[in-house]
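Running this now, will post back.
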Amino acid sequence: MKKYQHGGNINIKYDFSANINPLGMPENVKKILAENVEKFSFYPDPNCTDVIKAISDFENIPEKNILCGNGAADLIYRIVSAVSPCKALLFAPSFSEYEKALLDSRCSIEYCYLKEENGYVIKDFDTDLLKDKDICFLCNPNNPVGNVTDMNILLKIIDGCQKHNVILVIDECFMDFVLNGSDLSAKKFLSCKNVIILKAFTKIYAMAGLRLGYVLSENETLIEKVRNSGQPWSVSVPAQLAGSAALQNTYFIKKTAEFVSAERKFLIDSLNNMNLKVFPSEANFIMLKSEIIKLDRLLKSEDIAIRNCENYEGLERGFYRIAVRTRKENQYLISAMERCLENG
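Update: finished.
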């Protein structure tokens, strides 16, 4: 049986295994939570009225086309439950929770394996792969690699899904970390009723423990099915308060994307000097390949956690993902990796 695991939840000093915003949670979010503790004893608004209004203003999408959930993972399972697919297409490697949600619903899966020699980028796409499929998940930027799908390829996938009547779930949870990411979003294609976009506050606003995600779709029938597939109080009072407050930070995303871009370049340049294979990334994490297949265990002795990617479909031992952190943390990681590679 395949073991599903994720980064984070590690009692260690330097956690590079979870792709959380290195700038941390916005201060106004911390403030609103501290000031409203008494409200946590009440049931949350099942319709998420205030936070959906804030998301609508932020995304410039009508409120009726937005649905909130208890993080992106919750919404993945609810989408699968609502669609009840028999056959699915997944790209590999990619986020494992798509696979787990589909298998839990007894859906058969066909994989479109991406190639190492192409940097695990979708270079071309055969739309015939979508024949007889009910649903397809596309992670953009892709986790664990960090690359963004070329717009022409994205259009080809969308057109193929329309032609074959396939629901296309585009996971954009890391798009806000990408410089000018809004220009690369699939939001402009929401008029295609088969497209549903998945986003979350988890990573960009460092709110992993609060659990808040949302979907965007102009398919109101599908939105209603997803809504009815979950429990009515799926988003807590603190999550709703935090989400509304986070979206008031007009320049936070731009500031984050610029910060991450600079630190990512520093990390990639440093890693390229270590006889490692480093894959191109536009997100807040980097995938690398090392001949030292126990690199994660060696780094643990340095009080550092990185993500071992061998349990990703389409990858094997020797692949690792590291998050982009602050300069001080990144320098510590590079120094530790140099020691490990020298002694490993």
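The chain has a mean pLDDT of 95. More later if anyone needs it.
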